[in-house]
Amino acid sequence: MPNASVVISPSGNSALRAVSTLADREAGWRLVHHLARFVDSSHVPGVECVIPTYDAVLIEIDPTDVSLDALRTYLAHVIEGLDADLPLTDAPRTFDVPVLYDLDGELDLQDVADAQGLSAAEIVRLHSEPTYIVRCLGAPGGSPMLDGPPFPHPVPRLASPRPHVPQGVVSVAGRQATITPAAAPGGWSLIGRTPLTVLDLETEPFVPYEPGDRIRFRSISRDEYEALRGTRMVAR
Amino acid sequence: MTAGMITFVEAGSTQITDLGRRQGPRYGVPVNGALDQRSARIANILVGNPAGAPLLEMTALDVEFVSDVGILLAVAGADGHLTVDGVTRPWCQPVSVRAGQTVAVRHIQGGLRAYLAVRGSFEVPQLLGSCAPDSVLGFGGRVANGAAISVRRSTAAIFNDHFTSELYCLDVPRASAGFVVDVTDGPDIDDFAGTADRLFEQPYLLTPTSNHIGLRMTGPLPERVAKGEVLSRGVPVGAVEVPPGDELLVLHRGRGVTAGYPVLAVVTSGSLDVLAQARPGQRLRFRRVSATDAAAAARADRVELEALRLRVQSVFSALDALSTATTGRTFS
Hints:
With 236 residues, chain A is of the alpha+beta class. Helices cover 23% and strands 29% of the residues of chain A. Chains A and B meet through strand 3, strand 4 and strand 7 of A and strand 14, strand 17 and helix 3 of B.
């Protein structure tokens, strides 16, 4: 179905993928998140899971309750009524994240620096400079998915993913950055660790930030890392 | 609300799960839940539970538990041998157990997973509306030997003691035999140019590193022709990917919800249940189907399950009437 701002295509027999075609990436990101929220809050019969990301939203359905064609028509109508200029949140919160950067060469910081033609210190400076917007929550465990730091080149994913990446690791890949709230396998380059505890299963939803909130990284010493270990991640 | 407990003498590899954490993916958490959704639905239907009620998922290993309260249970999924106090009872039928009796599920075969539902279900912790274990979050997990789980209601025995047999035999729809995995073309199939059809040329061998997150298979690998870094996007359950290395990866319900690998094909909802029953060493053949045909098959199957639900309700209503007439109390 033609639509000026979004292309909707099947992703198997139980899911549709809607990808923004807006030239303005910020507007495209807002649009797919508004779409996800609308579908979520409308409790559309047959819709099981909604996964908004950077420029796309995946909508998983029970094909016995709704057809992909009917859902596609419905989504096209919904999109026409959405305002891509409306902010996701009126009062974004900012989270300060202390990071013990990998200057001892235990992780991948030096490899990333070499590939970018920069020093490790420059990578740290570029990574801790921006105020990042939480684009979406991703794998594993509600990771805050961010835009990448202003490196000259995209960061390639590791040729062989690590079977175990510990929680609290700060990583980059492509033009993206994140913090890992829970241990899992992963193919991103690891450039530091935060002592903060991000995941708290006693609260719902168990991570403190939402899409539209902000994150700032700050370089800390090993002593500070030890002193802050296990502190919960809270907004300013 | 607790009516009694079942206590595991031998827990095998058992989890308490349901149809999954549907609110999870929005928060970056996989849906998880019963890997063979159809068999889990059948087990719950056979005891009159809602489709999403918590139940036991038993993987490969024998299980034995004692109930301190009368329960009505049903086992569905892979074949196996069910006994109550050593007496063989029917698989895939509602089965009465009296307080103090020992239930054993042994010799799970012809598949990997069996599902055991109890009428009224279990009282278990929930996270975002689901009891499904999440190995990444560290929520839930395997039942330990000696563990006791609350049963939410007791059910008086519906059993003919004179003939030691059930009072009914329900016609339960069977799963399709064989290990053919239906897939539709994935959204990124063009990234694989002409090599995508390799998927259908020869069978693939399931490797032992397979689990609820994904199944790894060896065989002729399609090649990703398009290069460049992909922005993370939502990945559907059933996504067929070609990660670095020499294995094909098929994501199942424990998959991370976002990833940057292109999706070559997507396993249909019905064939995800087939994959849930495949054992390492098994050979699987992929078959291309249209999304329309796959949806039609899913609807036909659901109609069969709804018909089963109606048959079960008829049996329970008739037994209730009989029980009220003869003893003055309802069985339920």
